[in-house]
């Protein structure tokens, strides 16, 4: 993994919405699934935007 990608991912984690962070650890499976899908989509977007 290049340093640029690492910086992009770290910045993404720092900006992740609180509801995603909370729901990733929820006991409710539906809430976790929704948070995982949202998290993956947001991370994919951040990585796409970081491509040269």
Topology:
Elements: H1 3-15, H2 18-24, H3 29-50
Helix pairs in contact: 1-3, 2-3
What does this structure look like?
- Pfam families: DUF6771.
- InterPro entries: DUF6771.
- The protein is an all-alpha fold.
- It is about 80% helix and about 0% strand.
- The protein has one domain.
- Helix 2 (about 20-25) crosses helix 3.
- It is elongated and about 40 Å long.
Would you kindly provide a brief summary of this structure?
InterPro entries: DUF6771. With 52 residues, this protein is mostly helical. It has helices spanning 3-15, 18-24, 29-50.
In round numbers, the mean pLDDT is 90
Number of domain modules: 1
The parts where pLDDT drops under 50 for at least 5 residues are: none
Q: Give the oligomeric state.
A: single chain
**What structural class do the secondary elements suggest?**
mainly alpha
Outline type: elongated
Instruction: Tell me the distance between the termini.
Output: 15 Å
Largest sheet: none
Quickly count the helices: 3
**Radius of gyration from CA coordinates:** 12 Å
